[in-house]
Amino acid sequence: MYEIDGELLPYYTEIDPQKRLVILDSLPDCEAADFAREVYNDRYSDHERKGRKNIDWWLWRCICLQILYGRGGFFKRFRDREIDAITNELRMNDSDESHAPYLYHEYRNTARRYLSTCNSPGYASRFMGFRQASGDEKILKACSDIWQMSEGISRIAGNGGKMRLWISAFRDEIAEYDTVCLDEYERLSREEK
Questions:
Q1: In this structure, what are the phi and psi dihedrals at residue 101, rounded to the nearest 5 degrees?
Q2: Domain region containing 44
Q3: Mean pLDDT in residue range 82-86
């Protein structure tokens, strides 16, 4: 459904920003590569202007979406404004249909990069880190995280239409992460109505 030129596939499957840049720089000039460069510069720039390098701003915004998923009540108006700002930063308001396949693959890359952190020893641990999570617990937690920062946050913010591509990319990426993930994602979707 979101087919892209085969020359770009290595770029979208690589999660290391430096290696991605090398691949991107090796691509011939074309409209697709130009858009990928534009998105790369947006994703890996120091948006807070603190002089930091190699910041994956989109990965940070994923984590922010997950944090905002748990907020509401008194902070609802702030939460909704923040979600709107984040979705704009992540180019979810891009109405150019020719950009959709490239954004879809960039979103999947963002989800893949997040999932690569879910194998760390401290991920999903309990009791202040004294109880390490099992492999199955890590997988279920990763699935929950992905659901919260995609479909979950879109539901509470009422942004399903604007976040459609984001949700689809994250769902497709978690489905490839582990065989139980698609069932777990569907279960979360049913239970969190």
A1: -60, -35
A2: 9-191
A3: 94
* Mean pLDDT for the stretch of residues 6-21: 93
Within 13 A of 99's CA, how many CA atoms are on the CB side? 16
Token digits of residue 60: 């940070």
In a domain, 135, yes or no: yes
Amino acid at residue number 31 = E
- pLDDT at 52 exceeding the cut of 60: no
Number of domains in the chain: 1
- Residue 176 confidence (pLDDT) above 80: yes
**Contact call for residues 72 and 156 (beta carbons, < 8 A):** yes
Residue 4 lies in a domain: no
Q: Give pTM, 2 decimals.
A: 0.91
Query: What backbone phi and psi angles, to 5 degrees, belong to 95?
Result: -95, 0
Q: Which two tokens mark 181?
A: 């993930």
